[in-house]
Amino acid sequence: MLVLTVNSGSSSVKLAAYRSAGRAEPPSRVSEEHAGGSPAPRDTLRAFVGRLDTSELVAVGHRVVHGGTRFVEPVQVDEAVEAGLHELSELAPLHNPVALEWIAAAREVSREACGAELPQVAVFDTAFFAHLPRIAAEYALPAAAGAKLGVRRYGFHGLAHEAMWRRWRDRNPQRHRGTRLITLQLGGGCSIAAIDRGRAIDTTMGFSPLEGLVMATRSGDVDPAAVAFLARRLRVSADRVIEIMNEESGLLGVSGVSSDLRVLLHEPSEAAQFAVELYCYRARKAVGAALAALGGCEGIAFGGGVGEHMPEIRERILAPFAWAGVELDKQANDAARGTEASISGPRSAIRVEVIPVDEERAIAEAALRFAAQPAG
Q1: β-pair partners for 341
Q2: Which secondary-structure segment (H or E) carries 123?
Q3: What residue ranges define each of the domains in the chain, with the CATH number in brackets?
Q4: For the segment 215-271, what is each residue's pLDDT rounded down to a tens digit?
Q5: What is the DSSP letter of 119?
Q6: Which amino acids are annotated catalytic?
Q7: How many CA atoms lie less than 13 Å away from 244 in the CB half-sphere?
Q8: Which residues, listed in sequence order, are joined to residue 342 by a DSSP beta bridge?
Q9: Sequence-separated (6 or more) residues with CB below 8 Å from residue 190
């Protein structure tokens, strides 16, 4: 069986096709494409599907950023699910409407290519955090202005954090029972999760993906009173201030040079170097908070473009944790660039690993489960 996966962002998409040989083996990737610049869903899908053996195609899986409290497991998309996703667009205005466009396009293209409408399966980035403990999920707001209105901590990057946990478990079968794991998803967006025996108990992103760490163009944590203050001083709307915090801040805003850590590490200006140190400092604080929430941990895993490819950033984040028993193997850390690796030293009390994240495989596995179900 062959499944198509659609991992859509606000201005890009990753398409992939996975083949399953049976339940005993994980699906294997047979084709992929990454398109940026707001690609046209129907045209992009037609071109990609045209390169596949459509006689084997059985389902399409979609990453959907926000499932709220309603969608906490993968679901097959029908009219009721689509209506629910439209309602949730208020919470994810940059992402859920785009996902709905790709779902509609995939439905149309599958009819054209396969002569029948294939199951469209939605897999949610918030689902891994849907059962956060209440103490980690809620803000200190009056109920009428908080949880009753859906103002709570949802968490994001759930597919990535869960994928790291599952791969950690596979790589450390003798350790995973009882394992407390801290996962760092460091890319354009960044988040850290505290995971206790497979259950997420806290994370850095909250009501929106803006909360938490310093990111490529997102500010991360800012006192909410600053929004009204900046709206007055800059004579713009609150929505414009949020736009600045999402698109013009973070590494880009602080450095004034680039949102790319690879550039900033070699940029001698004081602003660029401060941006790198601020990025690492906020991540260190969050690792410390995760250690406190878990009461210690057995493992730390790095994923995402930065986490997988930048040894110096990993070292800057973890070097101060010698007090907690963390010791990196410098040679192993320097060599780990985009590949699975253990990078902790032999005396480290906490095992540290680099685990490349494959969100698309997680989407494919969910879609295959629905494709294997009998009709009706």
Answers
A1: 354
A2: strand 120-124
A3: 2-124 (3.30.420.40), 174-354 (3.30.420.40)
A4: 999 999 999 999 999 999 999 999 999 999 999 999 999 999 999 999 999 999 999
A5: P
A6: 125
A7: 14
A8: 353
A9: 184, 204, 212, 213, 214, 215, 220, 283, 304, 306
What does the angle CA 59 – CA 104 – CA 27 come to, to the nearest 5 degrees?
Answer: 25
Number of DSSP helices (H) and strands (E) in the chain, helices first: 14, 12
Give every strand in the sheet of 28-36, ordered side by side. Answer: 28-36, 12-19, 2-8, 57-64, 120-124, 75-76
Residue linked to tokens 């949730």: 88
Secondary structure class of 76 (helix, strand, coil): strand
Q: Rounded to two decimals, what is the model's pTM?
A: 0.93
Helix (H) or strand (E) holding 182: strand 180-186
Instruction: Give yes or no for a contact between 359 and 125, defined as CB atoms under 8 angstroms apart.
Output: no
Residue type at 269 in one-letter notation: S
How far is 165 from 362, CA to CA, in rounded Å?
12
